[in-house]
Fold Metal-dependent carboxypeptidase.
Amino acid sequence: MATNTEKALERFRELNKTIKSYHEALSVLYWDLRTGAPRKGVASRSEAIGVLSSEAFRLTTSDEMGDLLARLGEQETLGSLDEINRRLVSESKKEYDKSKKIPPKLNEEYVILTSKAESYWEEAKENDDYASFQPYLEKIIDLTNQFIDLRGVNGTRYDTLLDDYEPGLTTAELDEVFGGLRSKLVPLASAIAASSHQPETAFLRQNYSQAAQKDFSLYILKQMGYDFEAGRLDESVHPFATGLSPGDVRITTRYLEDDVTSALFGTIHEGGHALYEQNIRQELVGTTLCDGTSMGIHESQSRFWENVIGRSRPFWERYFGELQKRFPGQLDVPVEQFYRGINVVQPSLIRIEADELTYNLHIIIRYEIEKAIFNNGVKASELPEIWNEKYKEYLGIVPPNNREGVLQDVHWSGGAFGYFPSYSLGNMYAAQFTETLERELPNLWELVGKGDLLPIKTWLSDKIYQYGKLETPSEIVQRVTGKPLDPAHLVQYLETKYKDIYRL
Amino acid sequence: MATNTEKALERFRELNKTIKSYHEALSVLYWDLRTGAPRKGVASRSEAIGVLSSEAFRLTTSDEMGDLLARLGEQETLGSLDEINRRLVSESKKEYDKSKKIPPKLNEEYVILTSKAESYWEEAKENDDYASFQPYLEKIIDLTNQFIDLRGVNGTRYDTLLDDYEPGLTTAELDEVFGGLRSKLVPLASAIAASSHQPETAFLRQNYSQAAQKDFSLYILKQMGYDFEAGRLDESVHPFATGLSPGDVRITTRYLEDDVTSALFGTIHEGGHALYEQNIRQELVGTTLCDGTSMGIHESQSRFWENVIGRSRPFWERYFGELQKRFPGQLDVPVEQFYRGINVVQPSLIRIEADELTYNLHIIIRYEIEKAIFNNGVKASELPEIWNEKYKEYLGIVPPNNREGVLQDVHWSGGAFGYFPSYSLGNMYAAQFTETLERELPNLWELVGKGDLLPIKTWLSDKIYQYGKLETPSEIVQRVTGKPLDPAHLVQYLETKYKDIYRL
């Protein structure tokens, strides 16, 4: 009996490792497409991605996998496994049950479509040509709707999508959380707009050498503890991080000549994602648990590093001199002015360049549009108009073109509906983790002020990173902070920070 | 009956396309490893490469494939197929029969080993540390010997390896061809050494800006007709070209600060390989016929562009001004002096930097060492000494270290034993093709002198490139030149060129 279980476990682990290898290969193919693959190779590459995805999908949903999971998933057997194997079996079972509902052909069609669509989105964005992208988006929405039907609806249709990125999260919960957040942030934003202490920002908009920007980005990544022997920094239209294995976690950024901090904060953001995956514990390597536990927790790390650390006063007390050195004569202002400048709050068009506060409004807009698509049947053709209306309503500004409007984000071209809420969840998790971190590392801000960031990385690795998918988001939040997710921490963090900056 | 054949053909084409997709994915993984993948990701990447290779191997040797090939390969059925399908079936049958003899586990072991070994070779070369690489090489030789035993020996053991790169080529034939070549080239090299008209070369060895080198390399690639929407130029330790699909054929080069032509001729060489694969006809795309027909024919194209065109007098009469412009004040010599300088013949240590004439001696050395390994059981531990002895004997010089000696080439780390002779075959094919090209495009050198290189690319595409693997090397040579391969053309080409330069 024990021998049978051992054999089943061995075979299951082997299959799981093979699936993980397919994921690694696919991640390389996607990374390559996004960092300069030649245009004319896209069609053939999409075929290859389709073939590999199908095979990974086939392995995940094979009868053999089903049998193994049924055997290993029996109450008694599961109880006899060690923690890692137990979790690996239950996660695989969940994935199996979910994927089993999708016909392989439909999955392949979806994979090929979304991998092509991303290139077409890139082109459409460059040419500000929504019409050329619309048919692809229509088809992606159509297939996503088919997936929802096949997987079954529990609550609203959109809930089925949310579950992919934040297991268990519902539209009802999000409505409440986002409602609460909005009710606190809107008055704060109004008070800020009315303040007579507006930061100066003009000095941030000069012509900044790209080479020097890159040099400083690399320098800060090293300070954060990013391991360059296990990663690299490249450029892409839309910055991203991708973990092929903990030994190879890559990030990309995008340099703007007229903005000294856009690429930098993008790099710190992606660097936060990368630290997470570079520091997953060795025993999980080569298994499908070797990944972030949810998009929300992942975003908590990117946004923690970008905002909580990277936009803090102590951080710039330490590093502003280093930045000034790289742009001689261009940043001759007091550090306090710089600190206030990079924390200016004002409505803007581009999500990834938004301040910490209004950022959440960008997310709420996307959340509402996605709900409207899947719960109310809104069409792709209607999106530019709805987008612009919502920007007018929530932020008081209207995009002058679709490039700075509905075409700005890569997500929908890849079919990632349900992902956006993760960003605001990430802000909330980050604020809550920070409170615990400040308690457990009482000299936190002194360390940041000295440029000694490694204890922070160590604490996060110890508490969060090493676990990969070994725990669920809610388990991690509970274990680390001693209580469930509570949006009040984010509100408090923002109020404290911005009342100081705007002297409210 | 017809319907059954059609069904079998359809399924076979589908399988073949899937196999081709695996090849594309693998090529991306290898390209990535060679162009800057982080060191710590190598182990995991090798696993992924192993998984994908195994699956491609499994598909190639599956019972289903065997059945389909048996059915489609019947004399009558084969005769009823169109040219492409006929060739695709017979090539796949050959591959099937060959691969079927290798146990999948052994193949996987080999693939994982060689993909790791390449990274270890790179490190060993950088540190001039042969001892660290030797165990890998031993293991590769051992596995290669097992493959030879499994595949069976016809002639000498080394013949089994040669067949992988130049189908049908034997050690006996090569001994004769290389013997003949050596008997003509050695006296020519002696006469050259004794000439009182030695080219000046010191001016080629200054400090040349890498950015300007890159700029000129890109410019020349464009002139050759390399399509940058279907390719890209990167850097790697060992320059290479890789065709993922005709829409994505990538090349790499390596810049030396103190040598203005090393990267350039490397780029032209790889560019020649790339032109071949960018111009394979559309009907072959997505099949395993979409590839060069042999390494020898492939090398004929790289070496044609590098030497016959790129080291010709008319080429530099057109382009020397362009080069001078990019290095102001560094190349103030007459074009004739430059032409003679880049065609200097002298014994040297590094194959890829050798002149056209002594290059063949580098190949003969590797050929003899490979023969000794597989036909006479010479061990990996003995190679540095044998290498150095042969360099002393054939070229009169001894490498001061293994980095410039036995560690210089990537090939053995990837298990590519039997590849090297292709380079000299390439030289011979190139000379023979050139003779026909000069006849069919009588104003060839006038066009080169005007920088009008596209008619050359068109002629080569028409005669060679578009065919992919649709014809064998000997079929191509016979069709294009009207006769079988004859090494006399290379001898004549070299004699004519170098008697002029050295005024013999």
In short: The mean pLDDT of chain A is 95. The first strand of chain A starts at residue 233 and ends at 235. Chain A touches chain B through 39 residues (CB under 8 Å). The beta strands of chain A are 233-235, 241-245, 248-253.
